[in-house]
Design brief:
Layout: H1 21-24, H2 28-39, H3 54-64, E1 67-69, E2 81-83, H4 85-103, E3 109-111, E4 117-119, H5 120-126, H6 128-131, E5 133-138, E6 145-147, H7 148-156, H8 165-174, E7 190-193, E8 197-199, E9 207-210, H9 216-228, E10 235-244, E11 259-269, H10 280-283, E12 287-291, E13 304-307, H11 308-313, H12 318-334, E14 342-346, E15 358-366, E16 370-381, H13 383-392, E17 398-400, E18 405-407, E19 410-417, H14 418-429, E20 430-433, E21 438-441, E22 452-456, H15 462-475, E23 481-483, H16 489-498, E24 503-507, H17 509-514, E25 516-521, E26 527-531, H18 535-542
Parallel strand pairs: 3-10, 12-14, 22-23, 22-24
Antiparallel strand pairs: 1-2, 4-9, 5-6, 5-7, 8-9, 10-11, 11-19, 12-13, 14-15, 15-16, 16-19, 17-18, 20-21, 24-25, 25-26
Helix pairs in contact: 4-14, 5-13
The structure holds glycyl-adenosine-5'-phosphate.
Length: about 550
């Protein structure tokens, strides 16, 4: 759920905006400018200066081949994107960091891979057939249709998520909102199920769905995995994979797509232990950046840092809070996100997903969109396993030897949108460095698509290119690296900066004499001379940033 953008934006309409409206999937320029004008007299307390627009970033991603519209040669399809090799590497780097971090939280956490097409009954049991609906507003005269809560929110600048179709219809009427395309009176708000049905084989009697969340895969695998993993709780089952939603208005580049990647960890645990975690004492004084329902105050959405212990004292369960801490540490210590860009946004009863008892969104503050949901921490109780027991007829109850009791495990879900996180990493690290005259992507070493690049100073001196190739073959065995000899070395530095290469290694005339190379730091542009025999050691030292 993307929150209304209280940190208002900072206007730098890019010259390339108009050309790329379709690329972003919606007519953003106009509404963005109106938004600024309309809000100008009502500026929020904190005004951040925008250094680039979402459009700038989308153009950059297309130009460098990180990600771009799918089926592009046929004009593209709304809400579907492809990742080029740089985007794929960045996305995989995020996934690998996520995998290593979250699976090592407990020895009993594992990753599984499951089919994307699932039995219709899965979604009867989970409630998606009935409840996975979005409100839609459409025009009786032209082809305009949009998600009704987003439409009302954008027009009235007040939160509309979670409102019923009737409430949204009333707001549309009260505010006299007409079709933005042809000016006609809009239809009453209705609802649409967001799942993609699939007819298997000849189709008769074989109705299935593309999963709208990866979560259902661990739920239907739970009983078997529990038996296989020696019947121990908590049991974590993670999936990194595709999810599919027929979004009414896909938009904002890869932030709202119809096919996207999720990284989700379902933690099955004994509900009697909701208020404990064996390592809680280690984190109890850690300060979590939250925006609690009780701390919300209209448009002034001030983050309040609460220690883990304080959150527990305010009624949140220990098991839940422990994982909030771990997620914050993942963002700050592993992904190296600036602290002030992250917050956990608590959802109230009306806003929560239908299966959640406690629900915080993980939000990152993006340049143009403000705080944006990139994940969620969901206490799903036994909602899903109970549903699967009811519909499949298979017992989900287990006998827990440790507590000598029988129960259906409860689930804490740590849910992350991989594309949104990938976008956020690009957005946070994108720097149009005017002094340098090129873009610099300040990704950390573990995220950058390439850690280093090897350049011969010139390409027409065989002794130099031979030495550079030697250095390349040494380095590329240990570090993600590429070789580039095209254009001047300054141009190659700029190209490397733009795709986030952390270090450039240049072999020059002196290298033939001193067997050393020049190592250039992307962020400082400082250079140091390193003996080739010491190069791997030096790069290893540097790679821990
Ligand atoms: N299993 C729980 C679940 O799916 P969700 O809040 O609907 O919860 C989880 O989705 C995350 O998936 C979101 O926080 C977001 O990062 C990502 N996500 C959801 N819908 C998306 C979309 N249409 N396009 C891209 N990412 C999306």
């Amino acid at each position: 759920m993307t929150k209304p953008n209280s940190k208002l934006l900072k206007a730098k309409p890019s010259s390339s905006l108009k050309n790329y409206n379709n690329f972003l999937g919606h007519k953003r320029t106009l509404s963005f400018q109106c938004f600024l004008t309309e809000n100008f007299n009502n500026l929020p307390l904190q005004l951040t200066l925008m250094t680039h627009s979402a459009q700038d970033l989308a153009v950059f991603c297309r130009k460098k081949g990180f990600m771009y519209s799918s089926s592009e040669i046929y004009g593209g399809l709304a809400g579907l994107y492809d990742y080029g090799h740089l985007g794929t590497k960045l996305k995989h780097n995020f996934e690998n960091l996520w995998r290593n971090y979250f699976l090592s939280l407990d020895d009993n956490y594992f990753e599984i891979e499951a089919a994307n097409i699932m039995h219709e009954n899965v979604f009867k049991a989970s409630g998606h057939l009935e409840n996975f609906i979005d409100p839609i507003v459409s025009c009786p005269r032209c082809d305009f249709s949009e998600r009704a809560d987003h439409f009302v929110q954008a027009k009235t600048k007040t939160r509309a998520e979670g409102l019923s179709p009737e409430q949204l219809t009333k707001l549309i009427e009260k505010n006299n909102l007409l079709c933005p395309k042809c000016g006609a009176k809009l239809k009453q708000v209705s609802v649409m199920n967001m799942m993609f049905p699939v007819n298997l084989g000849t189709g008769r009697g074989n109705r299935a769905y593309l999963r709208p969340e990866t979560a259902q895969s661990p739920f239907v695998n739970f009983k078997l995995q529990y038996e296989l993993q020696r019947k121990k709780l908590p049991l974590g089952l993670a999936v990194i994979g595709k999810a599919y939603r027929n979004e009414i208005s896909p938009r904002n580049f890869v932030l709202r797509q119809r096919e996207f990647t999720q990284a989700e960890l379902q933690i099955f645990f004994n509900p009697a232990k909701l208020n404990e975690h064996k390592y809680f004492d280690l984190v109890k004084n850690y300060k979590v950046r939250t925006l609690l329902v009780k701390d919300r105050n209209g448009n002034q959405e001030q983050v309040v840092e609460h220690t883990a212990q304080e959150l527990v004292s305010q009624g949140l369960p220990q098991f839940y809070v422990y994982h909030l801490v771990k997620i914050q540490q993942f963002y700050l210590d592993v992904l190296k996100i600036p602290k002030e860009k992250l917050r956990f946004y608590e959802l109230d009863e009306k806003e929560r997903a239908f299966y959640n008892k406690y629900h915080f969104d993980i939000e990152i503050e993006l340049q143009e969109f403000g705080y944006t949901e990139v994940g969620g921490v969901h206490y799903r109780t036994d909602h899903d396993l109970k549903g699967h027991e009811r519909v499949s007829g298979q017992k989900m109850e287990i006998f827990d030897e440790e507590s000598a009791s029988k129960f259906i495990p409860h689930v804490l879900e740590l849910s992350f949108g991989v594309d949104r996180n990938t976008y956020a990493l690009l957005d946070l690290n994108f720097d149009d460095d005017k002094a340098r005259g090129n873009i610099v992507l300040h990704l950390s070493s573990s995220l950058a698509p390439f850690f280093c690049a090897v350049f011969p100073l010139v390409k027409n001196k065989p002794e130099i290119t031979a030495k550079a190739e030697e250095v390349y073959s040494l380095v590329q065995k240990q570090f993600p690296c590429f070789y580039d000899e095209a254009a001047s070395v300054g141009r190659r530095y700029a190209r490397a900066d733009e795709i986030g290469v952390r270090y450039c290694i240049t072999v020059d005339f002196e290298s033939l004499e001193d067997n050393a190379v020049t190592l250039r730091d992307r962020d400082t542009t400082q250079q140091e001379r390193v003996k080739i025999t010491k190069l791997l050691e030096r790069l290893s030292e540097l790679s821990s940033d």
